[in-house]
Each structure stands twice: as structure tokens, then as C-alpha cells.
Amino acid sequence: MTQAITARAIPELLTWPEEGITRVPMHVFSDPELYAWEQDLIFRGPTWNFLCLEVEIPEPGEFITTHVGDSPIIVVRRKDGSISALVNRCVHKGSIICHQPKGKRTRTHNFVCPYHNWIYDFDGNLTSIAFEKGIQQKGGMTADFDKTEHRLTRLNVETINGLVFGTFSDETPPLREYLGPVMVEHIERTLHGKPKILGRYSQMMHNNWKLYIENSRDNYHPSLLHAFFSTFKLNRLSAEGGTRQDDKSWHHITFTKRYTDKGDAAYDSGMIRAQKEDFGLKDPSLIDQWMEFPDQITNSIQSIFPGFVLQQVMNSLGTRQIITHGPEKCELVWTLIGLEEDTEEQTYVRLKQSNLVGPAGLVSMEDGAIGGFVQKGIKGDLDKRAIIEMGGKSVGGMPTRATETSVRGFWKVYRELMDV
Ligand code: FES
Ligand SMILES: [Fe+2]
Questions:
Q1: What is the atom index within ligand 1 of the atom nearest the CA of 97?
Q2: Do 297 and 223 share a structural domain?
Q3: Residue 345 domain-assigned?
Q4: Ligand 2 mean position, distance from CA 108 (Å)
Q5: N or C, fewer C-beta in 10 Å, the chain?
Q6: For 97-112, what is the mean pLDDT?
Q7: Is the pTM higher than 0.85?
């Protein structure tokens, strides 16, 4: 165990309900000891975690800093073009070594800890210690101190279509095997060219990280919670769509195809919270789109366990990365992307549609609030259980979005890794 695991073992903290993955004990969303276990068994366990886009560090020496769960990470391009990911924690006394979000290091000026100036190379090797030999033959490190025995913790790194993932564990299968063919195919489809970054923002959410991940896999809330979607007929459950999963149901894709008018009675009856009147946008060009993909899919949300989402909302493509901040808070980092071969007009459409997503997005702002509603709602009732039974009791892809099959998939893998 690498984290500060507390004295109590998981079985004392969590007994999973007999019903299995259709019930979730509410206290998993606020218990600090379970949170500490998650850091070890999930984020530092046999999982691939999104780190950045390759295009953020194109040149040798370029780096970004990020997190995997609570662990601070430096991701740097080596001289030979490969990518190195290191825990951003000095082996001397534990200080953060690099506090800049991004930058470039030359060969002679690698990563210098600000506290006592211990220096590391791009592989995390400790290359220099200030005053190692003391001053005027006095002081300094002991003669038997061997720098080569101390180095930054290194993650294994793999990439797919310009996305960089890292894992702490040698037990994690290769990235493409971990994702499975269905997920790989969808990533290749969405990122069908070389990505370029159009913008970035992040938001703090007042909820446990798992509540956001559940939300990203919850197929049937978008047309209900996000009134913009259903009001302007961008996404209704009556449109053709469905859910795909990998063989083990660790990951998920929800998708919608171009809207048709079929099967709208439930919305038009007023039973579902959606505007009956024919509302129109003052500037309809906001939702102008071009049919980018031959599969006619206009919206798809792909969620890779544990904390990564690849988004296509019409022509708005982007990545979302969850960073944990204690049991009742998390951060969502959004990076909006276009493709190198996009025309100027296409880039403009993508930028315009970025008004739909992000912390203040016309569509997605509710997702930033709803987790906080749950976090507040469950206080005092942590012995209660959530009901995850829409669309059955099992996991697996379905030709509908009126299902919580992928939320169950999340709890299936959570139970496997946490052994509960
Ligand atoms: S804590 Fe980094 S050099 Fe001392
Ligand atoms: Fe949502």
C-alpha cells in the first residue's frame, strides 16, 4: 500500500447490498477512509488514467503537470520523442517539484525541487544534490548515500490517437487491451485526425468524483435534466441511440443519431419536463452542424474507467478529466479540441458549439450542479441506498438510452477493484 491507508479494512467500512449492482450504499460518496482506499486500489491500481494530449508537449523538454487521483504528476517529452510520466514529489522531503502548469526544460535545467534544489532528469533519476559534498569539507550527505537508489516514481505510459494515458501498476494490461476493441474503434472514429487544442477550462464540483462519473454514464438524464436539449429537439430519448460497452462493462459509450420526429408522444404529452411550445433560438446558427461522421451519430459520450470522458456534442469534440479533491469535491478539466485538417469554417463551428459544453455550457451546466444536489441530499441518510434499476439489473450494451446499464457497469468494476 502506498497511500496513507487507515487502520480499518474495507469490509469494516463497506458491506455491499445483497441486491448487487442495482443498489449503491450512499456512504460511498462521502466516506474519507473509502476515499483513501480508492486512491490505492483504483487510481494507483490496475487502471489507465488520462494525463494529457500529445499535442500539448510536442517538443523534447516540454512538460505539463496534472494529477492521477490525488497524486501530482509531471508529464514530459523525452529527447527521443517518447513520453515520461513522473510523480511530482521530491524524494528528499516530499515537496512538489514543479508547480507550473506547463513549460519547457532544457537538457541542463531539468526538474529542480524548490526546497533544497535536488535535481531530477526526465526519467526521474536524481542527478544532483546541492551541497552533496558539504562546504569546505564540512557537512554534506553521508559517504554511503547513493543517488541512484532514489528516484521519482515513474508511471507506465501509452498513447492512442494523441491521448496520453498513464498507469502506476505493472498489472494493468496494455492500453488497447484495457479499452477493448469497441472503445478503441470509437476513439479512432472521434479523433479521426491530428487533434489541436481550441480551449481549456476547469470547474470545481461540490460532489464526490464518482457522482460525476455516474452522471457521464447516465444515459437517460440528458433529455430530462438538460432542458436545452429537449426544448430545441437536439437530444430526446425518442431519437435513435443506444449504449455500447466493452466486454467487461468497464467502459461505456452513449450515442444519439440525427433527430427524427418519431415517438415523441411522451414529450409532447407534457408528462416529461420539456417545452411543448415550438421554441426557437434567436440565433439558430448556434446549433448549425455538419455531419462529421458517416455513422450519423450527432452526440456521443465515451467514459473510460476510472475518470476520462471523450465528448462529441454535435461538432464540439473534447476531453474531460476528473481529478479528485477529497471525498466531497472534485475537479473536472475540459479540453476542447479540433482537428488539424479542419477548415476555418469548421473551427468556427466547433468554437461556437463550445457554448453548449463546459461549466457554463447551455447543455452541461446542470451536470456541474446536480452532483452537488445529490451530495447535499444524502447528508444524514448515508445508510440509504441509491436505486440503479432502469433498463434491468445487469450490464451490457443496449439499443436504447432508457437504461442505467453503464452506471451498473461502473459499480461492477468498482466492486471488482475494491473487492467488496
Ligand atoms: S524537499 Fe526537495 S530538495 Fe528538499
Ligand atoms: Fe448531463
A1: 2
A2: yes
A3: yes
A4: 47
A5: N
A6: 90
A7: yes
